[in-house]
Design a protein that fits this description.
Layout: E1 2-6, E2 10-11, H1 24-37, E3 44-48, E4 51-56, H2 58-69, E5 82-87, H3 92-104, H4 111-125, H5 129-136, H6 140-148, H7 154-161, H8 167-177, H9 181-186, H10 195-203, H11 208-222, E6 224-225, E7 264-265, E8 271-272, H12 275-297, E9 310-312, H13 318-326, E10 332-336, E11 348-349, E12 352-362, H14 367-377, H15 400-404, H16 413-420
Parallel strand pairs: 2-4, 3-5
Antiparallel strand pairs: 1-5, 3-4, 6-8, 7-8, 9-12, 10-12, 11-12
Helix pairs in contact: 1-2, 4-6, 5-6, 8-10, 8-11, 10-11, 13-14, 14-16
């Protein structure tokens, strides 16, 4: 039923999406249009005690107040101090639904206002995100993304509301603010990837893609992504162990297993916030892995504390590498390869693709490799042509190994070292 209600007895919808006051210029234009053509759509409201609570029509309410203040005549019977309202019986959810529908059509509602409106409805009605999406007529992913904006710090929310940064830019910044405060404090002095510098870049108009790259770099610099871990979340490690990434002294193990650890963030890229613990667990995992590979291959693990770099054998051609391995040289060792060796690589330990066979002689000084290269360059003695009159090849020039079917014996490591000398 339409009733004429005093402006003093009209209150706004408690689920109104827009927080601030409507634009004064727009209110004035709307008021003059109402004065000229009349009210084209009657607002709807409900009675709460002696007050009428608007469901929608807040801009028209503001326009009526402007007309009343200007003392613009309406007609002989009624002035603009009274506004017609269609008074109905409405539930809280109906009130919230009408407010949302009205404001979704407006362009002046900021993303933060929409986020706060959704959050208010979820808290008031006990909705989860799926229910909020259903009631509001939007996708569930949209609800999730909008609510994440409320995790932004106030200065960025203000910049977003003022139009200083776009919603896409704000979304790109979100993963940075979802990191713990101590990580942001640690990164504060970083000239390129500090939070303050990234914020300035956003306000100065940097694209969302570039901002996302910088935020990812900040996260990678000060955290570790668990999906890149060589160990598993449920692997057990002795707490308090102090071990470096290469097996030397370094970080300490904070928690025996990663899954329940309070320094792992599962909902933001599944990252570890304790780089020292991550490195220590990586080193211990590699030790365990190489110990199992050493048992399978019968080759010792390289000493990480020995100076220089072991000589790689995998970069040489396969026949030479295989001949070196056939020597069973006492200098053969195992190292951990971050990239798994190919299945047909002779330096790969079967069943242990990350165990790589190398020579313990450092910095390219493998005598076996040098001996084979020199032997390959030595000229072979010329052999006379066999006598065609003979029914069988002259035994003086016959390869005994070929007659017996046995391959030539592989040179020993000592023989190769002698050649190298």
């Amino acid at each position: 039923m339409i009733e004429f209600i005093s402006l003093n007895h009209i209150t706004p919808n408690p689920w109104q999406t827009r927080i601030g006051e409507p634009d004064p210029e727009y209110v004035k234009e709307l008021a003059l249009d109402i004065a000229e053509r009349g009210l084209l759509q009657t607002p709807i409201g409900r009675r709460i005690g002696e007050e009428i609570q608007l469901a929608f029509g807040h801009n028209r309410f503001a326009a009526f107040k402007w007309l009343a203040e200007q003392d613009i005549p309406r007609d002989e019977k009624i002035g603009y101090d009274l506004m017609p309202i269609d008074v109905r019986e409405l539930t809280d959810e109906q009130m919230a639904g009408m407010a949302w529908s009205e404001n979704e059509k407006r362009r002046d509602v900021t993303p933060i206002e929409r986020a706060m409106a959704i959050q208010q409805r979820m808290q008031s009605f006990g909705w989860n995100q799926a229910q909020a999406a259903e009631h509001l007529g939007i996708d569930r992913s949209t609800v999730s993304n909008i609510l994440r904006l409320l995790k932004l710090p106030q200065n960025i929310q203000d910049a977003l509301a003022a139009g200083e940064i776009s919603e896409r830019a704000a979304v790109a910044l979100l993963p940075m603010y979802e990191l713990p405060e101590h990580v942001l404090i640690e990164a504060k002095g970083d000239y390129w990837y500090g939070p303050g510098e990234i914020e300035k870049s956003a306000i100065n108009g940097m694209s969302s893609d570039e901002l996302r790259q910088r935020v990812n770099r900040l996260r990678d610099n000060y955290t570790r992504q668990m999906q890149k871990a060589e160990f598993k979340l449920d692997d057990m490690f002795p707490e308090g162990l102090v071990l470096g990434y290469d097996g030397s002294e370094g970080g300490s193990v904070y928690c025996a297993t990663c899954r329940p650890c309070d320094r792992r963030i599962a909902d933001n890229g599944n990252v570890c916030l304790d780089i020292g613990c991550f490195k220590a667990k990586t080193a211990l995992h590699r030790r365990r892995y190489l110990a199992a590979a050493a048992t399978a291959a019968g080759i010792e693990v390289v000493d990480p504390n020995k100076g220089g770099n072991p000589t790689s054998l995998s970069s040489w051609n396969t026949p030479l590498t295989q001949r070196i391995l056939d020597t069973k040289c006492e200098n053969l060792r195992l190292v951990y390869a971050e990239t798994a060796e190919k299945p047909d690589s002779p330096t790969r330990v079967p069943g242990h693709p990350h165990a790589l066979i190398v020579c313990d002689k450092r910095n390219g000084s493998c005598s076996c490799l040098k001996g084979l290269e020199l032997a390959a360059r030595q000229p072979k003695p010329a052999q006379p042509e066999p006598d065609p009159a003979l029914s069988v090849p002259d035994p003086r020039y016959t390869d005994v190994c070929a007659q017996t079917g046995n391959p030539p014996a592989a040179p020993t490591a000592a023989q190769l070292e002698e050649i190298a000398r």
